[in-house]
Design goal:
The structure holds two protein chains of two kinds. Chain A is mainly α. Helix content of chain A is 71%, strand content 1%. By secondary structure, chain B is mainly alpha-helical. The chains are: A mainly alpha, B mainly alpha.
Chain lengths: 392, 193
């Protein structure tokens, strides 16, 4: 009765079933795929180095894992805030069950978390051993624990580590894909919602995950390096940016393919989806997601990747493009999650959604939730140095 | 002395001792996970299925929010006289006004309910009576198109519905007017307030 009683009902159009009036899955459910997407995308960056040997990505290979871990630690939180019990956000790992697609996520989430942590420990081991020797007191205890009390960094030992790292990174890739493909699947599997139920949904989610993850890493890499007044590795940024361009082009193609093929086929319920995209979602879909945050970045990609640009301008350009793409993905999640619920099952009317500032799932909560991963990352950075030194 | 040597043995590191320790660590984690499941999973979790069995009981015992029209009419005598005789007799008061328990607790008024005025009334009526709703059989809940409906009656299109239709018995004044003007309904139409 929310919408009814505050008089906002004027923009509710045509016939909306009473149980469709209220958008139940609101901003928290937008953040959830956004955060898991960043996890999966960041992991892919480090895998490009560790599995596919893209040497240029070495400077960000360690950082991207920590970045993924920080976001993974907060991934389930928005869901559980939505359910009203944020304190239970880790419970899904101890009560997984194959009986439901939602509870099944517990397996994927827990396993992925273990793989990620192990990979970080193995990759950082030589560094941890070195730090352990150079520190004292509490920090030394932490480092001893994290290096499992072993200070053996003989070539034999490192060779073994290398094999294990490769193995972990290799199984990490399908798991990262599963992690986020699953999130797309949860939406794609909702048969009753014509904007969600498409087998393309997991693919689109996965690709946009890569886009947001890589953008996030580029942006944070440049920002932290600038902040510490350290030199940037341009080669690394260029490689990241080219990968970003590749992933984004495919991602955007699929997003548009979904819209235009339904539009051409006039498939069932297309009239509803069309009305949705051209009506309530006009600004957030066509203007924001498609034009401002997709078409504009495409031109920026063309300019930055295909022409010779001065280094400073290039770096500025990558920052702007990455920022725009982070917003693109956020808008895409918004348009999918909230947009999809604006259509009534009557197939004859649209409801509306007003974000509130101080609601349990309001804008303030969203901002707090989005800053949590960065706080976690900050503390992780106190233990695991993000960046390689010249000698490494 | 003895403990010292055990410690030294444990902390001695071969090229793969950290791997062994990590495996032990994972086993510990598994045990820890299992233990925390026993501790943290809610008491009745899993009794009936993959959920908290007690949740059913809790849901069933939730305080109701809505009541029947009958319950409203015990206090609202005026509406009782009108509503029950009108064409809206089957329509829930709460659809237009909001939930009973936002209004009444233990037979006492605890809150004001929503009362739509003017422009809002039009929106309210059109939620059910809009011609756009094509899913309806035409003779059940009759629908009107705007502004045609108002144009037909030769009034300004800014007229709100309640200027002619009394909200609790929409045809009461319409029929009254018809009687005064001696307008006869088509034979199959039964006059009803």
């Amino acid at each position: 009765m929310d919408v009814l009683s505050n008089g906002a009902v004027t923009t509710v159009s045509n016939f909306v079933f009473p149980n469709d009036l209220h958008v139940h899955w609101s901003m928290m459910i937008v953040l959830y795929p956004y955060i898991t997407g960043i996890v999966a995308g960041a992991f892919i960056v480090s895998s490009l180095y560790h599995v596919f040997n893209i040497k240029a990505l070495k400077p960000v290979s360690r950082f991207s894992l920590l970045f993924a871990l920080a976001f993974l630690a907060c991934a389930t939180l928005p869901l559980l805030v939505h359910l009203g019990h944020p304190e239970r956000s880790m419970n899904m790992m101890i009560t997984p069950s194959p009986s439901s697609a939602m509870a099944g996520f517990g397996y994927i989430y827990a396993l992925y978390g273990i793989v990620l942590v192990l990979e970080i420990l193995f990759i950082y081991r030589p560094k941890l051993v070195q730090l352990q020797a150079g520190s004292a007191g509490w920090m030394q205890k932490i480092y001893t624990l994290l290096s499992f009390g072993s200070d053996n960094v003989t070539p034999e030992s490192l060779a073994l580590d290398k094999k294990i790292i490769k193995f972990l990174a290799a199984i990490g890739i399908p798991m990262a894909c599963l992690l986020h493909g699953y999130v797309g699947f949860i939406f794609g599997g909702v048969k009753a919602n014509p904007t969600w139920s498409t087998p393309l949904m997991p693919v689109i989610f996965l690709l946009s995950a890569c886009v947001s993850g890589i953008s996030g890493i580029i942006l944070l890499y440049i920002l932290t390096k600038k902040y510490r007044r350290e030199s940037l590795n341009l080669e690394c940024i260029k490689t990241c940016f080219n990968y970003l361009a590749g992933f984004f082009i495919i991602d955007f193609t699929f997003e548009m393919l979904e819209v235009f093929s339904h539009s051409y086929l006039r498939s069932g319920y297309h009239h509803m989806v069309e009305g949705l995209l051209n009506g309530p979602l006009y600004i957030s879909f066509w203007v924001a997601q498609v034009f401002m945050f997709s078409v504009v970045p495409l031109f920026l990609f063309g300019w930055l990747c295909l022409t010779r640009v001065k280094d400073r301008l290039y770096i500025l350009g990558t920052m702007v493009t990455s920022g725009l793409l982070l917003l693109q993905v956020l808008y895409m999640r918004w348009n999918v999650v909230i947009g999809g619920q604006l259509m009534s099952k009557s197939a004859r009317g649209y409801t509306e959604f007003h974000p509130q500032w101080f609601h349990k799932e309001g804008i303030i909560t969203a901002i707090i939730l989005m800053s949590l991963p960065f706080i976690v990352l900050f503390f992780l950075g106190k233990i695991f140095p993000f960046w390689l030194e010249e000698s490494e | 002395m003895h403990i010292q040597s055990v410690r030294r043995y444990l902390l001695q590191s071969n090229h793969n001792s950290h791997v062994k320790r990590i495996i032990v660590g994972l086993l510990v984690l598994a045990v820890f996970g299992f233990a925390s499941k026993l501790i943290f999973a809610p008491a009745t979790f899993g009794d009936l299925g993959h959920y908290r069995a007690k949740a059913i009981l809790e849901e069933a015992n939730l305080e109701p929010r809505l009541m029947t029209n009958e319950s409203c009419l015990t206090c609202h005598q005026h509406e009782k006289r009108k509503h029950l005789k009108g064409t809206h007799k089957t329509v829930s008061c709460e659809f237009c006004h909001g939930a009973y328990f936002d209004h009444i607790l233990d037979d006492k008024k605890i809150g004001t309910l929503d009362v739509k005025k003017g422009e809002e009334i039009r929106v309210l009526c059109l939620r059910c009576h809009n011609k756009e709703i094509q899913a309806r059989p035409t003779d059940k809940i009759k629908t009107v198109a705007l502004p045609q409906h108002l144009e037909e009656k030769r009034v300004r299109t800014t007229h709100t519905c309640d200027q002619c239709h009394y909200v609790h018995a929409p045809l009461e004044y319409v029929n009254l007017a018809k009687k005064m003007m001696r307008i006869k309904d088509e034979p199959e139409k039964e006059p009803c307030p």
